[in-house]
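Workshop exercise sheet. Pairs work together: one partner reads the sequence aloud, the other fills in the structure field after running the prediction. Swap roles for the next sheet.
Pair: D.N. / O.F.
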Amino acid sequence: SERGITTNVNGVSKIESTSVPGTGVIKVHFQPGTNIGTAIAQIGASVQTGLRIMPPGIQPPMVVQSNASSVPVAQITVKSDSVPEERLYDYGLNQIRLKLFTIPGLTSPAPYGGKVRQINVEVKPEMLVAKGLSPYDIVNALQVQNIILPGGSARIGTFEYNMSLNSSPEVIDELTRIPIRTVNSQVVTIGDVATVSDSFADQTNIVRIDGKRSTYLNILKKADASTLDVVNATKAAVPLIQETAPPGVTLKVDFDQSGFVTGAINHVLVEAVIASILVSLMLLLFLGSWNNVIVVCTSIPLAILAAIIGLRLTGNTINIMTLGGLSLAIGMLVDDATVAVENIHRNRTLGLPLTKAILVGAQQIALPAIMATLSICIVFFPVVLISGPARFLFTPMALSVVLAMMASYVLSRTLVPLLCRMLLAKHDVNHEAEAFPRFNRLFARLEATYSRTLETFLQHRKFVLISAFAGLLVSLCTVFVIGQDFFPNSDTGLMKLHVRTAGGSRIENTEKTISQIEDRIRGVVPKDEIETINSVIGVPPFFNLAYVPTDNVNAGDAEIFIAMKKDHGPTEEYRQTIREMIANEFPSVVAKFQAADIIT
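Structure field:
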């Protein structure tokens, strides 16, 4: 398949493949600008052609379009104290998934864990030898005599009936009576050479939720969907699904990733409030008028709103990076409006009428203001030259800053003069200047001190230049000691631990080891701080591998998800404690922590 893709598919950047028992996952990365629809069609044609030269029994491949933004944003855990895990799996696969598919932007693969019902035919080798048969004879008999075919129609009187040929057994006894071949004038049936049972497929994946076998469904958002919308819709749907759930089955939304987006939005709001308060105090102290405060603070939410509209028009969304850009810009949004108001105030103190002061003040700072705004915006221009994943991360952040700054400048040229004309018409500028005389005297002394200090520095230019250059060198040296990461460490309250036991371990033995590790985690991490511990042991279903990346490649691998409560201790300290515990108490186990959230 890989060779066929490299020769028949255009725009391929690189190919990655992962093989697990019975399944192979091939990830094809494309160059920027490649038409994904055409690429999927080419891949489908290529693998279908290659299917003909593969060993018998290979199932047709499934081609899935993937995106870096299509990530798990929550889990729906399905657990019960009385319902067995095979029924939990069946309920999650055939009931919960069907009800979740109506949520826009949501994708949910098959449940993790549980057992899959299967009719097993266990061959008796000695009977096959006695009858002169082979396993292929049994397979052929099942394929030929276990079919459903259309049989046309029957016209009887004034009615027409659809007819079908249905030889599919409905019960186990019918399956055992399927004939295989006639040997020595006797018909040999499947029941003569094999044992047929209604059982389960070999379990390759076990899920433990808080120490009990259960199942869960991963909730993934599509690339163009909102994390908040998907998670909120899922939370709203779960109670409705719970009403029709079998007795004893409990559904719960765990590992909610929308909290990071909500926290980022709240962070922007807090930044806006803090900026407004600080600007208000500054203007009140220096200009002595609440009206000046109102004029400047009005421009902050309007500039943010204009930036959000610009992001929408450019196809961006409210995400961690755009919210980070808005947070960065909030501190600078007030600059243009503050300078405009202060210059109008200065012209009024020179004796100019209000209207004249507004016009003259706006004209005086028009060029310096646009130069200052463009200087800030031009700093973010190199972001567009970045390539790879970093470009898609930082371009929206830079765009949000630029849009907010340009909106701030436009407002300072239009809305701010208008508000000054409306709100400052009846205010005495001399009275405003005397509102805080003690502060004015203190500021005057500070100005005098600054003037003397500046004069001293100007007289010792060589010393100042050498000191500045030395400071620059020291700051450059810190690059080698602060470390390098693509994402900074964040205490999100989520931990994901990948555990690999001894090679060739059976899944039952791996489960025992994971159970012991879970118990020890509850011993080294305060129990009152742990929300839930979910473990995925073994290899997930093959179609889940195409949606959610995992390092579980055999029965000896497991992933442990730990969700902490809101009031928890430092997560990094708990990680280090867990590492030391596993190294000391489970020396044959290899464990590592992985990213557990959408922002790491």
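Discussion prompt: The mean pLDDT is 85. What would you look at next?
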